[in-house]
Amino acid sequence: MTPTRPLQRDHSCAIHLVAGACALCAALMAPVQAAGRKPAPAVPPTPAIADFTALSGARPGDCAAPTDPALSTMGMPTMRRCAWGQRVEMLYWRSIPAPAGTCLPPAAIAWYRLAQAIHADAPPWSAAWSGRTIATGTGDAQQLAAVWRGGDGQWSATLWRWRPTDKPATRTWQAGHWNDVTQAAHAIDAGNPLPAASPLFVAWRDSSQGKPRMLDGDTWRWVSDKTCLRLETSGISQTRIHLPYSRDDARLEQRSGMQVQLARRLPDAEWLQPFTLLDPAKPGERTGAKFIAVWKEGRSVKGQLWIPLRGDAGIVRARIVSDLTAASADPKQRAAVVERELTALAHAWEVRHE
C-alpha cells in the first residue's frame, strides 16, 4: 500500500517550520526597521537675539545687497534676513568653526572679526565670559554684534544693522523694534562684566588694539604679525640693582650689572637682546626710564619690560612669551616681534601714566 499519511505529516511540519522562520525573521527585522526610523536630531531653538521676526516685527525676506566683504572671514552665515525695505539686516552664525592656525579660541576670533567689521574698538575677549555684545552707530546707521555660548556648548554669533528711514513716524516705529534688539543683547551681557582695569592692563589694551586678543586668567594672549604671544604679568617688585625712574639717571654700569644678574639667574638662556634702555616714543621727550631684555629659553622666546616708578613705589614688570613651532622656528624673527610688542607696551604706558 502507498504510505500517504506520513507524507502529509511531513508536508505539514515543513509548512509550520517555514511559518516559524518567517515569524522569527519578522521579529528580528522589526527592531532593525525601527532603528532605521530614528527621528532626526532636534535642531536647537533659535536664540532670542537671532529671532528676526520677533525682534523686527516684520516678515523676513531675502537681502538684495551682497554680503559685506568684511564678513567673509566669518564664513557663510546660517541665516541672513532683511526687512523694512532693506533697512534692517541680521546675520546669524549658529556654530562658529575653530579657526585654523591660531592660538585663540573661536569666540575670541569671532569677537575680533565682528568688531573689525563694524569698526568698533572692542575690549579683549575674556575666557570667563559666556557671551558679550558690542554696539556702534551714528544717526545714519546702527550696528550691534554678539557672541555667546549656547546650551549645547556651541559658540554662536549674530550681527544686526539698521539704517533709519527719514520718515519720522516710520523711524519711531523702527526705533522701538531696534530697542528690542538691544534689550535682547543686554541679556547676553548679563553676568559678564569687564575685568578690573589695572594701569598695566590699560597700557596693554592700548598697545594691542586692533589685534585678536583675549584674557585667560592672569595671562593675556594676542596675535601680532601671525605670531601667538602671551603676557604673564609679574606685578610690582624691586631689583637688587637700583633702576632709576628718570632717564637722565640711567647709567651703563647699571645695565651691565642687571645683565650679569639675569645671566646668572638664567644660565641656559640665549640672549637675543641684552638688558637695554628704551628710547621714548617721541625722540627727545623727557619720560621715565624703561628697560627690556629678550632671550631664548628652551622652545620659547621670552622678553621682559621693567618700568621703574617714582620714589620707592617699586618696578612694574611684564613678561611676554612666544613658543617656537616647527613651522616658525627662527628665534631671531620671533625676538623681533617680542621686542616690538614690549616697546609698544612701554610707549603706551608713557601716554597713559607719564
TrEMBL record:
PROSITE patterns: PROKAR_LIPOPROTEIN (PS51257). Residues 1-34 form the signal peptide. Keywords: Signal. This is Secreted protein. The lineage of its organism: Bacteria, Pseudomonadati, Pseudomonadota, Betaproteobacteria, Burkholderiales.
